[in-house]
Design goal:
InterPro entries: Ald_DH/histidinol_DH, Ald_DH_C, Ald_DH_N, Aldehyde_DH_dom, Aldehyde_DH_Superfamily. With about 500 residues, the protein is α/β, with parallel strands linked by helices. It has a 7-stranded mixed sheet, sandwiched between helices. It has a 5-stranded mixed sheet with strand order 15-2-1-16-17, with no helix packed on it.
Length: about 500
């Protein structure tokens, strides 16, 4: 399936963005009261088309991103599966909180007929990410969530994979047209300034972004400084702390070392859930064990040249901080990056946490050593570390669950991490985010701009929904999903939850 990218402008003009937003708004008003089953069928059609075009799209992605075909093929499967899961959530209807309280004159005060629902906010601007060219890009989680909410998407294409983005858009728009949907349910555009213009437009009602804290702050300001501020859901940066407890370090040293080496180098360290700082007992000498697993690992290009430059500069600066010992350095260049491992005492980190606990995007991690002479000392030190950790998407604990001391320490550490991290993991690694109802992919700033919500899983739909209530409204004037007699959608009627038939 050849794609003509010559017609794709290098930067979308002001007049172009104005026209595109107008088209998106028209689609919103014409489809906002469509049956959720219709939205679900459109999403499923796009998922099927994405799977059918996988081989062609993976070939483009491999050229543009330097990621492997196996990684990219798996990401396509994840992306189409995510579209289908959120389509199923729309089909069930529980995500819209459809609620009917019939009139009851015997109540005090008398209750009128009340019907409430969550409806789509309107056109949504989605900023595609660089590190997941499928799962967090054109047809990624933000697009799927907006669609399931009934919101058309204005997609700001990432400059790191433009040909892939235009090709994916063509697949989606062709599938929508074939399914009887308006192809403008998703519209692509390019350019940083165009993205800011779109986010500031009064017809746009929400924004979603995955990228750096620097750019995320700028976009957040645009969304908040409008005459009518709108929600802006940004996933910005995360160090994803790991705490290795003493008994686990003694009894599972090699297993933990191998797991850490594999996790922080997965995808060349370009996962938002990469473990960036790891607290380890000094006596375990875990750095030696991890270094053994890193020896011989190959180097390769990162996603973009700018990411490569930032990685080289970031690891160089980290290695020069007071007290840092460089355990492994692949001597990365902008064109080819390899694993970097350093270690530092907890006391040095406590003295200047901002310097040591900043995110370094790429295959680098920092071991923070603490003294493990006795449990009381360990608990005190880990409490001090927890108090300075920045907000993160994940927090991980490795504990020997057959050791009473580790179990007690794990309880304390988990209790503290749950206030700093969106997902707490025991005896595993954070790289890998299941697309499921129970998944939370979010966290306190700077992990996200809105810790109340997730960007993965069906509950991510809630970001693009807003409540509206109707009182004493004639049946014919109600949205179809709130009219009497519906059995195909989950609704709460007079206080009782009635599942979809």
């Amino acid at each position: 399936m050849p794609v003509d990218v010559s017609t794709a402008p290098a930067t979308s003009s002001t007049s172009t963005i104005d026209a595109l937003i107008g088209r998106g708004q028209e689609v919103y008003f014409s489809t906002r009261d469509a049956q959720p089953s219709m939205w679900a069928s459109w999403m499923t059609a796009v998922a099927d088309a994405l799977d059918a075009a996988a081989d062609h799209l993976v070939g483009i992605a491999e050229r543009e991103t330097h990621l492997t075909p196996a990684r990219l093929s798996g990401e396509v499967t994840r992306t189409s599966g995510q579209l289908r899961l959120l389509a199923a959530a729309a089909l069930d209807g529980s995500c819209y909180e459809l609620t009917i309280d019939h009139a009851d004159p015997e109540k005090t005060p008398p209750r009128p007929d009340l019907r409430r629902m969550l409806q789509g906010v309107g056109p949504v601007v989605v900023f595609a990410a660089s590190n997941f060219p499928f799962a967090f890009s054109v047809l990624g989680g933000d697009t799927a969530a907006a669609w399931a909410a009934g919101c058309p998407v204005l997609l700001k294409i990432h400059s790191g994979h433009p040909e892939l983005s235009w090709a994916t858009l063509q697949v989606a728009r062709t599938a929508l047209r074939a399914a009887g949907a308006p192809p403008d349910w998703i519209i692509g555009f390019t350019g940083q300034q165009a993205g800011r213009q779109a986010l500031a437009d009064p017809r746009v009602k929400a924004g979603a972004f995955t990228g750096s804290e620097h750019v995320g702050r700028q976009l957040l300001s645009v969304a908040q400084d409008r005459p009518d501020p709108i929600p802006f859901y940004g996933e910005l940066g995360s160090v994803n702390p790991v705490v290795v407890l003493p008994a686990a370090a003694r009894h599972q040293r090699e297993q933990i070392a191998g797991g850490l080496a594999a996790s922080f180098t997965l995808g060349r360290g370009q996962f938002c859930t990469k473990p960036g700082v790891v607290a380890v007992p000094a006596s375990a000498r875990l750095g030696d064990a991890v270094t053994a697993h890193l020896s011989g690992m190959d180097t390769g290009a990162l996603l973009t040249e700018s990411i490569g430059r930032a990685f080289v500069q970031g690891t160089a600066e980290l290695g020069q901080l007071p007290g840092v010992l460089v355990d492994h350095d692949a001597r990365s260049t902008v064109e080819s990056a390899g694993p970097w491992l350093g270690s530092v005492r907890l006391a040095d980190v406590i003295a200047a946490p901002d310097a040591y606990l900043a995110e370094r995007f790429g295959p680098a991690t920092l071991l923070i050593t603490y003294e493990d002479t006795d449990s009381t000392t360990v608990a005190t030190q880990l409490a001090s570390l927890s108090s300075i950790l920045p907000g993160s998407l994940t927090g991980t604990v490795h504990a020997d669950l057959d050791d009473e001391s580790d179990i007690a320490l794990a309880g304390t550490v988990v209790d503290r991490l749950r206030h700093r991290c969106g997902r707490i993991i025991m005896n595993s690694w954070p790289t890998g985010v299941a697309v499921a109802w129970a998944m939370h992919h979010g966290g306190p700033w700077p992990a996200t701009t809105g810790s109340l919500h997730t960007s993965v899983g069906p509950t991510s739909i809630r970001r693009f929904l807003t409540p509206v209530s109707f009182q004493d409204m004639p049946q014919g004037l109600l949205p179809p999903v709130l009219q009497d007699g519906r059995t195909d959608l989950t609704r709460r009627i007079d206080g009782r939850l009635v599942p979809a038939a």
